[in-house]
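A quick aside before the break. I want you to see a complete sequence-to-structure record at least once, exactly as it would be stored in a machine-readable document. Don't worry about memorizing anything.
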Amino acid sequence: MPASNTESHLLDAAPINLNTTLCNLPLASPVVLDPALSVRDALRAIDSRDAEAAVIVDGVSSVPLGIVTLRDALRCIVNEDCDLAGPIAGVMTGGLASLSAEATVHQATVLMFRRGMRHLILTGADGQLFNVVSQGDLYGMQAADSASLANAILAARSIDELAAQTAAVRRFAARRLAEGSGAEVLCEWISALNDLIALQVIDLVEARFELPYVPWCWIVFGSEGRLEQTLVTDQDNGIIFAAASAAEAEDLRQQFLPFAEAVTTALDSCGFSLCTGQVMASNPAWCLSQEEWKRQFNSWISVPEPKALLNASIFFDFRPLYGREELVTELQRWLLQRCKGNTAFVRAMTVNALEQTPPLSWWREFRTGGGKEFPHTIDLKGQGIRVFVDAVRIFSLAHGIPHTNTVERLRGVRQALGMPVEEAAAMAAAFYQIQRLRLQNQVSGEFPAAANRLNPDRLHKLDRQILKEAFRQARTLQQRLRLDYLN
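That is the input. The structure line, written in tokens, reads:
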């Protein structure tokens, strides 16, 4: 599948999407003001830059103290409680949430939605001001209906209301798909809206429990961890918490489990079905202290047996959702150090990944299956998406790439693999083509019991040819995997 100019933007041009790092957004430099500056002079400075807001920064430490917007200043003036000669610090809004400039657009979008914020301060690793991002900078990438849907989710005050919004997300996705939205953007927004629902669920449930006063975080795995959710998804989640000893960890686990059970039950009521493999925070096996998670991952890496490799395909794609994110960030950093250059583990993962092959026969026709229940079908998830996800995960872990999203991993590892941008762009395009067909198939509801199965004869000629080429890209990726780690 040769990469056109449109396709190649997927890799080198680094298009702005929900996985984009905030420091890579094309933002104008911020208006920075001293807290002692008068309100009048501050407004003049903001107006001279044609800006909406300014950041008030401590002149000694360069740490942001707050933010002032033209809207805030106008409200004060209209209410006649603003001294134009007084310091701007008296008008600013202080104590605002900030976010690391290394965070993603997805994280900023979810935070701004949940806090009802119009501007978000971005900081560097030293805590000093990096920049300011506004709703316009982020929400310009979405349709108005997704913004109104997000607001409806945040307004929900019961599990029943959230369940209704889950159905609305499905309708939104079906409508956007019919309008021609690409699979990349659509999967990102499905994941973002599902995140908001899950966050609201946790908020509602947490209010009913007295949780232990220790750092903890709700983790998501699998497709949710990769921001690649489609319309049919179950739960893959866990809890990580801080504990000083094994005895304390066991005690804390028993306190978290009733809460986790209530959350997973509520998510099930909202349409996120319980995981048949019990990969949920309500399972004591996945409600662990940070040290217990490290030991668990280490056991899978040290002894890569079939079950360990199966777990790796789920648990190695994780990200924080709710709580103290630094617990998860540190775990991710530790895991990458353990995996990078670990040839035995990478080789075992490669052997396991190559067991599933794209559904193409040697004469380049589809190799169908499905038995009597789903005759003459192919599994778009297991034989298509999984091939890309497994292969790119292996490459990224082997080279220490921190991303979890499949195309972001491909972008991050491309140069290390010596892969031409055209080849990588073709693989990204193939991946999203299969995702698009998965979404269309799920909307059609032809096989409700097997929403990822597709009868290729139902496709028109062009889509059949494109799907064949997409599977050939998956085969090419597996060939590269075999050459790199099995020869």
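Two observations worth writing down. The domain at 5-11+347-485 is CATH 1.20.120 (Four Helix Bundle (Hemerythrin (Met), subunit A)). The first strand starts at residue 32 and ends at 33. We'll return to this after the break.
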